[in-house]
Amino acid sequence: MFSYRDSCEGDVHVDVAFTDSTVDLQELRPGLATELPRVEEACGVRFARLHQVHGADVVPVDEPGPPPLEDVPTGDALVTATRGVGLMIRVADCVPVLLADPGAGVIGAVHAGRQGVALDVVGHAVDRMRDAGATAIVGWIGPHVCGGCYEVPDALRTEVAALVPSTWAQTTWGTPSLDLGAGVRSQLVAAGVRVTEVGRCTREDAGLHSYRRDGADAGRFAGLVWMS
């Protein structure tokens, strides 16, 4: 169910996890049912979620429990200072980022794809957390497609790397690529966040969902953060 779990302590207890279970908001097709209810039962919390659109909008969450599917907000990051609220980001190659300040009781979750990295969505999320009182933020970068696998046209590599130089990369077969994880790490470090990198490339690891590897057949796994 979980490929990685960790926790940290302050005035509140914060748990973080990355799943290897499928956590789509609804069943994609016969044989690929979402395991979200089982994941929520194991964590003991319901998770707020987003319709993710590869942007930089940060959505504040004040109430525990997710809204009905038709009312799920649009954005690419969630932030809350409310205990009993869980935050969930779903990915299948993009970079899932979990953030917490257990001393201040503020958490965040970020979906950072190519466009989100170029727009510094993680920086926007950190700013919103600080607006909510966070001062000492720690972050976890979850499994994502690595720079050795994320092939892109040379012009696109040049465009993104002009904004985030650490994303410039080359595939293992010698073509232009982007290292989104390196880009996210550089942005978090610049924002004063202490970073833990979980590792694992989604395209190379058959135990994780990957759109680059599986196309439309790919499900989504989750990055989860919650506090008690």
TrEMBL record:
This is Purine nucleoside phosphorylase. The keyword Lipid biosynthesis does not apply. Pfam families: Cu-oxidase_4 (PF02578). One of its GO terms (molecular function) is S-methyl-5-thioadenosine phosphorylase activity. Keywords: Copper, Hydrolase, Metal-binding, Transferase, Zinc. InterPro entries: Cu_polyphenol_OxRdtase, Cu_polyphenol_OxRdtase_sf, Cytotoxic_necrot_fac-like_cat. Purine nucleoside enzyme that catalyzes the phosphorolysis of adenosine and inosine nucleosides, yielding D-ribose 1-phosphate and the respective free bases, adenine and hypoxanthine. Also catalyzes the phosphorolysis of S-methyl-5'-thioadenosine into adenine and S-methyl-5-thio-alpha-D-ribose 1-phosphate. Also has adenosine deaminase activity.
